[in-house]
Amino acid sequence: MPRKLTDERRDLVDAIADFCRREQRVKGEPHDQVVYEKMAALGWLGIAVPEQYGGAGLGMTDLCLFLEETAYGLAPISGFGTTIIAAAAYEKFGTEEQKRVVLEGVVKGRVEAISMSEPGAGSDVSALTCRADRVDGGYLVNGQKTWCSNAHFADHVLLIARTSQEESRHQGLTQFMVPTGVDGLQIKGIDTMGGREVNDLYFTDCFVPDSAVVGTPGAAWVQLMAGLNLERMILAALMLGVARRAFDDTLTYVRQREQFGRPIGSFQALKHRIADMATELECARLLLDDVAAAITAEPDRVFAREASMVKLKCTELAKHVALEGMQMMGGYGYATEYGMEALLRSAVVSTVYGGTSEIQRDIIGKTYGL
Fold first, then answer.
1. DSSP 3-state assignment of 339?
2. Going by C-beta distance under 8 Å and a sequence separation of 6 or more, which residues neighbour residue 331?
3. Please, are residues 91 and 103 in contact by the beta-carbon 8 Å criterion?
4. Phi-psi region of 76 (alpha: psi -120 to 50; beta: other; left: phi over 0)
5. What percentage of the chain reaches a pLDDT higher than 90?
6. Mean pLDDT over residues 145-160, rounded?
7. Amino acid 28: pLDDT
């Protein structure tokens, strides 16, 4: 079923598709700063940035279209996801100077990172122990963070650290705007299936001034909850794009590949799998579009159930479609030449970061009083 888009949105999708055909990178680094800045010059990176900071000021629907199409087109702009998540926190809670630096930087093609996870605090963010202790004029940060995407080429890290020990573990957390080149911060890459996309961060008596505090000291948990819609929708839109790409590449292959005198897609075993994937993709797209439209209409409302459903559906579907694509393509699906293995690497981790599938199911269950 074709999407019903306005002329402006159809033009945006077509322009992104044309750009990606010319600039896509099947192999190599997930983020190409040259390509990223070309998109910035076209005004696309500021799609969700308020107009007063040079952006387009558009809503969730337009942002999701951009994310989905760039993922489908294999655009090497992995830094955008964390950038827009961090930028939204600065927009909501930052000082005017923080907003100016970060939001205007986003529009120009700068990258931002956000750091919550620790070796002992993943799904349970409230268990984090990285401390920011009060000193004259600011804070001294000590501790380790991990799985921090894009910190190795970001301008700043939006750090969540513990500034006090309260009765509730969700209290006493504070957000800080930390330049990646500051003294006392060491950034060390972690080797993963996808290369060096994530990092360990080591803070040793790292001084950050009072002006680095983002929002209210001790209130980071509430601030983080305000950004859940955005993070989950970003990941969902990206993975819907990956799932669509894996499906289309698989479909092209099974139409062309012949065995036993006919295209392998004509065999019932594969034909039915293609039909099931196509149906699931349509369901995921409709869910994403519906929730994106609801958030666009009510941007300040937290759609806990719906956003978790979209994240769960799109990430699990992307993993499933990429795995099915690899199976149907046989040895060629495993070869880097054909790109399916790269799509699988992108998809498989998406059910872990940004809240695991298990956490999303738990959240959905809680909204039903369970």
1. coil
2. none
3. yes
4. beta
5. 86
6. 97
7. 64
Write the burial class of residue 1 (CB in 10 Å: 0-12 exposed, 13-18 middle, 19+ buried). Answer: exposed
- The amino acid sitting at 53 is Y
What DSSP letter does each residue of 53-92 carry, written as one string? GTS----HHHHHHHHHHHHHTT-SBTHHHHHHHHHHHHHH
**Cα separation, 239 vs 237, whole angstroms:** 5
Parallel, antiparallel or unpaired: strands 156-162 and 138-149: unpaired
**Identity of the amino acid at 34:** V
The helix (run of H) or strand (run of E) holding residue 258 is strand 258-259
**Catalytic site residues?**
231
Rounded to whole angstroms, how far apart are CA atoms 264 and 256? 8
Do residues 312 and 350 lie in contact, with contact meaning Cβ atoms separated by under 8 Å?
no
pLDDT value, residue 3? 85
Q: Which two tokens stand for residue 50?
A: 């308020």
Cβ density class 3-28: b for 16+ within 10 Å, e for less: eeeeeebeebbeebeebbeebbbeee
What are the DSSP E strand ranges found in 27-181?
112-115, 131-135, 138-149, 156-162, 173-179
